[in-house]
Fold this sequence. Notes:
Layout: E1 11-12, E2 26-31, E3 34-38, E4 45-47, E5 50-51, H1 53-61, H2 63-71, H3 77-96, E6 104-108, H4 114-121, E7 125-130, H5 133-143, E8 147-149, E9 162-168, H6 177-187, E10 188-199, H7 204-209, E11 223-224, H8 227-233, E12 238-251, H9 252-259, H10 267-276, E13 280-294
Parallel strand pairs: 6-7, 6-9, 7-8, 9-10
Antiparallel strand pairs: 1-5, 2-3, 3-4, 4-11, 10-13, 12-13
Amino acid sequence: xxxxxxxxxxLETASCPMCGSxxxxxxxxxxDPYRVxxxxxxxxxxxxxxxTESAILKLxxxxxxxxxxxxGQGYDEYLEVRPNWIKTFSRRLxxxxxxxxxxKVLDIGCGPGFFLEAAQTKGFDAYGLxxxxxxxxxxxxxxxxxxxxxxxxTADYSAEAFDLVVAFxxxxxxxxxxxxxxxxxxxxxxxxxxxxxxxxxxxxLAKVSGKKWVSFKLPEHVFYWSPPTxxxxxxxxxxxxxxxxxxxxxxxxFLFRRLFRISAPSGFVKALINFLNKFSxxxxxxxxxxxxxxx
Length: 295
Ligand SMILES: [Zn+2]
């Protein structure tokens, strides 16, 4: 799935945030004009060249980006995705609840607020942060001032404000991941938890899918972390509690429409899809969840 930006391509080369620019990265896949490359030193996979950060932020602030990503195009695709995200986030929260009681949680990259809905149901006091003007307006309709516009590196939360920080399907979008981790750590209480779910290029699904892996989502996904590389990034100030396979829920209607490439169902097919949407299944999508404690 490729979202071509509707702007002039403003490209830059990137280097491994942990090892620097030498030796030069090796090519994994060419997605002209983007390339997925590997750091020959630590194995981190990343996009280079990539869009500049200002160009990608323009893309994210565009309402059209979310029309296909979140809201669905006409019809009731929105109804297909919302309950699935809430179930997916509830499942990820259950992983965290093995280690701590519900407390104050910040969702970085909160989108329309599906995580906040799941977290409130489980007893958390939930807050959200997102760089998109458009999606912040959508999320504020439901959550008001609990939603902030911006990025964690410059957000004005007080230090040690949260028991839990989550970044679900967000960390792969982050341009300066080490600075991001420091900023996330700053707002966490000592002993608080960070939970990240992000695509893992060393997963079985990624290996089987090769260049067609669903998570090579360009130009948005700029870093592809694996268990060894995320361990390396979380060496200082963190204790890793677990790294596990992750996935997401999808309704049978959603999978049926994808399988038969149905975009605008009507009549019997629409009725069938609405029926199938009552059921959903969980499947591994080649992502991993990392839970780490601030020490
Ligand atoms: Zn490296």
